[in-house]
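Data card: per-record layout.
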Amino acid sequence: MAEAPKIELFIKASDDGESVGNCPFSQRLFMILWLKGANFTLTTVDMKRAPEVLKDLAPGSQPPFLLYNDEVRTDTNKIEEFLEEVLAPPKYPKLCCRYKESNCAGDDIFHKFSAYIKNPNPGLNNMLEKKFLKSLMVLDQYLLTPLPHELDVNPDVTRSPRHYLDSNTLSLADCNLLPKLNIVKVVCKKYRDFTIPSALTGLTRYLDKAYQQDEFRFTCANDSEILLAYHSVAKYLNK
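The structure for this 239-residue chain is written out next.
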């Protein structure tokens, strides 16, 4: 029987240096390892203290990074690909998407959100909010559109009942998108009193289902940690 790999994931620490910090890339890899069901050690890295572990293992790098059987990997996308390759069936579940469209669903939301939340000019707010809202609507439409395997089961279905981007189980695409949506939700509420409209039923269902999953809700940074990270970035509108 093959010996289990020795895996350690280093992620950004919170401001107090102890818990999970605000970093969607760290959360993405944390979720993947949890969903894989692999045994791993989670180490939070306090960037304010420039710990020796960074100098020794990954000089010049920022978390997240992965130590896999004493080999260091620092590129998030490549770590994801590597984990999908080495933590494979039958022992570990496959997390890649069946449909390539699922991988890019919602990929412009964070960019539109950033422009919306960094703008202090009331005269530009409506335009930026509409662009941001449109990106949410595109994602909502994707979540409501039946995928081919759903149409194979029921050719007459007009609205998809699936929970997540690609199916009823979390995928790599969800691990990438959900941490960003959590940041969007928290920051928009604080700085714009904006909440995702309930009329976006596909997106609302998606988030509701995701927050029921331990692999997502227990890997999220605290709201206060997210707001602290955006304190110098997000802008209230000028009066």
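Known properties of this structure: Strands lie at 7-12, 41-45, 65-68, 71-73. The CA atoms of residues 91 and 227 lie 39 Å apart.

See the next section for split statistics.
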